[in-house]
Design goal:
Blueprint (H helix, E strand, L loop, with lengths): L40 E9 L6 E8 L6 E7 L6 E8 L2 E5 L2 H6 L3 E4 L7 E6 L2 E16 L2 E12 L5 E7 L3 E6 L3 E8 L2
Antiparallel strand pairs: 1-2, 1-12, 2-3, 3-4, 4-5, 5-6, 7-8, 8-9, 9-10, 10-11, 11-12
């Protein structure tokens, strides 16, 4: 079923195996994802887990040797969700990769800022397609870290019956994730 956990950065998981080119060169990129900054940390409480016993995970953001790619390291309390990924914010898209250069050349992106309702996109990783759709804008979501105005995005892994919901805020990333196999919410952050 679910093969990845979305970082507040979007996320986490098996998203990092892409190799096509960006439509925009890396020299023209602007980071419109402010939570991607060196030293930022986010702590999530896992509120419902079907397959594992983890109750929380922490995400740390660091800059890499390339000033336009960020490394996101997620560590869960029981170790089931520990993962590292590389993220290249380029204008309104957040590209992913399993290395710095893969993030810079990836055609797969997990987040899109500043798009209207009914915007859809897909990514294919290791033969599996993940589909996203913006189904709501300006949704007020209250979690232990505060109240945030979010986009409501559905996430569906092709070949499965589950469709999960992500509430994301352009300034802080994932605020809340309601999934079939697990759910989480932002508990606190250091920015």
């Amino acid at each position: 079923m679910k093969t990845k956990l979305l970082f507040p950065v979007a996320l986490i998981g098996l998203l990092f195996l892409a190799s096509c080119q960006h439509a925009t060169t890396t020299t023209n990129c602007i980071n419109t994802f402010p939570y991607l900054a060196n030293g930022h940390t986010l702590h999530y409480s896992i509120t419902d887990a079907f397959l594992f016993s983890d109750t929380s995970f922490d995400v740390s953001i660091g800059i890499t040797s390339s000033s336009d790619v960020y490394m996101s390291t997620g560590v869960s309390d029981q170790g089931s969700l520990n993962q590292t990924g590389y993220f290249h914010p380029c204008n309104d898209k957040l590209y992913l990769g399993n290395t710095v250069s893969a993030a810079q050349s990836s055609g797969n992106y997990e987040r899109v800022n500043n798009v209207p309702v009914n915007t859809t996109w897909s990514e294919t990783v290791s033969g599996t397609t993940y589909n996203y759709a913006v189904i709501g804008k300006n949704i007020s979501v209250t979690v232990p870290a505060g109240t945030f105005v979010c986009d409501k995005v559905t996430y569906h892994e092709a070949g499965t019956i589950n469709t999960d919901t992500i509430y994301c805020n352009a300034a802080v990333g994932d605020v809340k994730y309601d999934g079939t196999l697990f759910s989480y919410e932002l508990h606190h952050k250091n920015f």
